[in-house]
């Protein structure tokens, strides 16, 4: 998931803007302490890039809200294992044809029953190129996807994927174009939730006040740049396991402001403690912090396709070798990050320690040699764009200083006020400097670190802001998808990863650690590796 705490496709999903901070919103929720308040908890998020349509939400800010409003077929637990959510069972004999039985009792917040058709209609909408949904490529494994995506300038001949079939109200049969063992894991991503019939009458209006099937329902409309308020849905099958009576998502434009609110008791949950809070957060929030390995990877990206200055691989490698990752992790982030040595997070099967090799190791002499060999940048000038609402100023400026010192470049760190701003400019090919980006997994599979960020399809519908295309990479991705076992798939995906590590369309800089805090209104809580709060784990004081 690209990240407004992630990247485009944490980032998603994300793409990890990991952090945005405060203009506040939501009003007084009584978050000042134990036994006080009305049972509503407040959560810091940044302004979502789009309205709250699940298939058009591919960043962590909107994704956090979708997670509270909707329930999909599977989800991640606190150990990052894929478990059934609304699915009662998911069965297959060949990893190609999947039969999914639904649990009974689920309704949308308007009372409509959730059926197999609710999922089929939602997925067909998301997969149809006419609707231009950001998560469109995630449906590409389903048979009939190509019929809904004939290409630019062409109109789909149908609005239904042939691989989707309802066998009564409670059974969904999905046929893929080829075996894909990670399909149940993929279903845990929020793009695969169901939609009620009212959505299709007015998708735009729905996005401002979505009607989901999850533990919380909207209370009023999306108050842009202020708040998204929800209240507990009492008819939710798992309602008895949900303690909060509502969630107010407070939209901040500055992480530091949010942290001050958290310490003062005016905010209940902040998933990303800003750099300014790292030296003192355990003292500021005694017994109320979360520190755990995270799925996100932070990058410096290059618009290879759109700016010829970045098209030489030796240039990109030179910049990578001139970055002191250990200093960034230890000094800037005070140990709250670790140096990246792969495109894949260490918490995901398939990660290989040291996979990036020399390219991700500081070597100033070699970096200078490669930079000279590449022909360098015009005027020896480099600009690195970043979103100012995510706590990235310090580390991007540190990278800029290192590149100035180690390569003799004139480097400018260019702030964009919000993550959605730089995402929109990258989407429109308007911004052509280097850029800060990150990726947080949509689902726990190595494939999710490759296809959504670096595939050819991800240029139009994903987080491939680089415009990177490599035929060998595409071939290996396809082979990995069709592998008969997870173990064989991982081996092939690792070969695709090696192609990326040679080309370096993005430079891996650091792996995230999740450092979160909560107020004394919350007794305990857990967060899955995809940055989503597990609401049945949130216990109030």
TrEMBL record:
InterPro entries: Peptide/Ni-bd, SBP_5, SBP_5_dom. Keywords: Signal. Gene3D superfamilies: Dipeptide-binding Protein, Domain 1, Dipeptide-binding Protein, Domain 3, Periplasmic binding protein-like II. Residues 1-22 form the signal peptide. Residues 81-459 form the Solute-binding protein family domain. PANTHER family: ABC TRANSPORTER SUBSTRATE-BINDING PROTEIN, PERIPLASMIC BINDING COMPONENT OF ABC TRANSPORTER. This is ABC transporter substrate-binding protein.
């Amino acid at each position: 998931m690209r990240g407004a705490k992630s990247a485009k496709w944490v980032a998603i999903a994300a793409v990890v803007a990991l952090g945005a901070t405060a203009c506040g919103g939501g009003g007084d929720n009584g978050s000042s302490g134990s036994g006080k308040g009305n049972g509503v908890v407040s959560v810091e998020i940044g302004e979502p890039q789009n309205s709250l349509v699940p298939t058009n939400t591919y960043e962590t800010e909107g994704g956090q809200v979708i997670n509270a409003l909707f329930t999909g077929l599977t989800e991640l637990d606190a150990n990052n294992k894929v478990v059934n959510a609304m699915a009662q069972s998911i069965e297959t004999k060949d990893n190609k044809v999947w039969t999914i039985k639904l649990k009974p009792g689920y309704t949308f917040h308007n009372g409509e029953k959730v059926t197999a058709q609710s999922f089929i209609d939602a997925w067909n909408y998301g997969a149809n190129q006419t609707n231009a949904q950001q998560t469109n490529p995630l449906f590409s494994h389903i048979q009939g996807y190509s019929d809904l995506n004939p290409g630019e300038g062409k109109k789909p001949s149908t609005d239904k994927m042939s691989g989707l079939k309802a066998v009564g109200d409670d059974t969904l049969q999905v046929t893929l174009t080829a075996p894909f063992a990670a399909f149940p894991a993929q279903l845990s991503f929020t793009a695969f939730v169901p939609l009620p019939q009212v959505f299709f009458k007015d998708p735009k209006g729905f996005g401002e006040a979505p009607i989901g099937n999850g533990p919380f329902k909207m209370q009023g409309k999306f108050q842009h740049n202020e708040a998204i308020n929800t209240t507990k849905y009492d008819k939710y099958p798992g309602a008895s396991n949900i303690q909060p009576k509502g969630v107010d998502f407070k939209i901040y434009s500055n992480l530091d402001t949010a942290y001050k609110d958290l310490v003062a008791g005016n905010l209940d949950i902040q998933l990303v403690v800003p750099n300014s809070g790292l030296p003192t957060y355990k003292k500021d929030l005694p017994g109320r912090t979360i520190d755990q390995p995270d799925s996100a990877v932070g990058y410096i990206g290059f618009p290879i396709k759109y700016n010829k200055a970045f098209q030489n691989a030796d240039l990109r490698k030179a910049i990578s070798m001139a970055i002191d990752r250990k200093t960034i992790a230890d000094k800037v982030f005070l140990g709250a990050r670790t140096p990246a040595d792969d495109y894949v997070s260490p918490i995901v099967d398939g990660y290989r320690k040291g996979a990036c090799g020399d390219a991700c190791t500081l070597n100033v002499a070699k970096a200078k040699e490669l930079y000279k060999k590449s022909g360098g940048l015009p005027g020896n000038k480099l600009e690195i764009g970043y979103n100012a609402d995510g706590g990235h100023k310090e580390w991007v400026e540190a990278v800029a200083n290192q590149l100035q010192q180690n390569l003799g470049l004139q480097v400018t760190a260019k702030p964009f006020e919000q993550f959605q701003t730089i995402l929109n400019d990258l989407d429109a090919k308007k911004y052509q400097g280097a850029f800060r980006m990150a990726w947080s997994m949509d689902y726990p599979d190595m494939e999710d670190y490759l296809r959504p960020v670096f595939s050819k399809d991800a240029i139009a519908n994903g987080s491939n802001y680089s415009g990177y295309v490599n035929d060998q990479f595409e071939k290996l991705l396809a082979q990995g998808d069709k592998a008969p076992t997870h173990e064989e798939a991982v081996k092939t995906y690792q070969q695709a990863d090696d192609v990326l590590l040679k080309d370096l369309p993005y430079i891996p800089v650091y792996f995230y650690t999740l450092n979160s805090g909560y107020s004394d209104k919350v007794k305990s809580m857990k967060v899955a590796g995809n940055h989503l709060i597990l609401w049945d784990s949130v216990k109030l004081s």
